[in-house]
Predict the 3D structure of the following.
Amino acid sequence: MRMGSRRRHAVAATTLAGVATALLALPATATAHAPLVGRQDIPIPEWLFAWGASLVLIVSFVALTIAWKEPRFEEDRWRAVSERVSGLLVNRATALAAGTLGVLLLALVVYSGLYGTESPDRNFSVTFVFSTFWLGLVVLSTVFGDVFRAFNPWRAIARGVAGVFTLVAGQPAPPPLRYPERLGRWPAVAGIAGFAWFELVYALSGFQAVGLTPHSVAIATLVYSGWTFAGMALFGIDRWLERGEAFSAFFNMFSRLAPLEVREGKLGRRPWLTGTTGWATVPGSVGLVLLVIGMTAFDGASEGLLKEPIGSLERSLEGLGPVAALRLSNTIYLLVAVASVAGIFWAGIAGMHTVRDRGATHSTRDLGRLFAHGFIPIALAYLVAHYFTFFVFLIQAQFTFLLSDPLGDGSDLFGTASSGIDYGLIGTELNWYVQVGALVAGHVLALVLGHDRALKVYGDARTAARSQYWMLAMMVGFTTLGLFLLSVSNA
Amino acid sequence: MIPAILLPLAHVGHWWVYVLYAVPVVIVLGSVAVTLVRDRRGRDRRG
């Protein structure tokens, strides 16, 4: 009877897999069809991709339920690599070189922002901060681990100052304040929220000569640097970087997906994804991952779905002045987007809470922290889906004309100042498939992480699967929402 | 077969196409609701 049930599940999963594959493979077989809705370059409507993606998730869910009976990610499986390899990559010389490069890049951002051209696309600072740094380090962190820690300019400067102090005073200076544990990562969440507002709201009027200029990027960098140095001075360098520093927390979140981690000066390997399991135990972690998803969703929606409502609100606020009305209306909808993502998350967690766990009494908040790490791949998927073309185009600018002419003053340091961006590098069709692929992969990984955690929390596979129905609903919701937002903004 | 049934749906109109995005979510939430009801009835039967 039991085997029969399993066989039925297997047959159902295989059938669903076939249908899902057929749906996602349709473009290859249906190229003779005329364009239908929205985009002119894919042969089936975009909503059908959402159906196909949902089917992939359902198949993955069924497969996990059948084949994944024991938690595999809960055990710490970090193992140090050989001393030789570790010593080659992680040593004082590489730390000094990486820190120095980080400081030089920080200085270049500030200098080019203050003294370079006011044209945002010809100035090193804007492209570096919003593309190379913000997005490029996400990619590097996901593959190689927490590389930002090595290149973090604020850490390098603070460690240098602390080293000099220790030499002079003969002892290290203890931090005057103890970091309040309940603050967790909330200061970092506030920092990322500030960055999101700066990028998505303040920057909006940039090309109307009042908002985001290289000068404002430089000033914001200086202000944030002051805030970071104050945090490190008050609570200690490592403590503030672990909890309060926004970019350290942001890149560290993605580094948890990576198979590499440095612990106590030694490089080690671990299976992909396993670094995520302990991440969300610190307060504020749920807020951080939801904020990243929400801000990316807003960026997509503001170009499509929310364009009209934002415009309407802006017109009703015109009495405040055009720039204030624009910023206030976008701020309100940014908050709405983040609140909506949080609402979906907490609704799913509340649903999960209705499933009885054996003996354990997890509150809804506890469950949120227990399952939030599964949303890191979704945050990554949203970033890839939304910024793929933006990143590929701007990274060309970064390593061609902005490298040779960072100030935009006509210099040609490396002979690449006359090179430009090849906008034909990525077609809209390839972009769409990357977007769909990223969203599907991110949500499948989220299901895997959620299922693995549920096996630990709920004890037996059946109850775990029951709890994960809610996770499946959330994943299907986020995937279709992501594809919907992309299709509207692409249209 | 599937394209023959589904593709014409794309022509029903701009606004309706957006509703189609919600279909998978509705199906999954519906199956969650059915499972919950079945579980509750099962528990009630067992007393």
Remarks:
- The radius of gyration of chain B is 17 Å.
- DSSP finds two helices and no strands in chain B.
- The first helix of chain B runs from residue 2 to 6.
- Residues 2-46 of chain B form one domain.
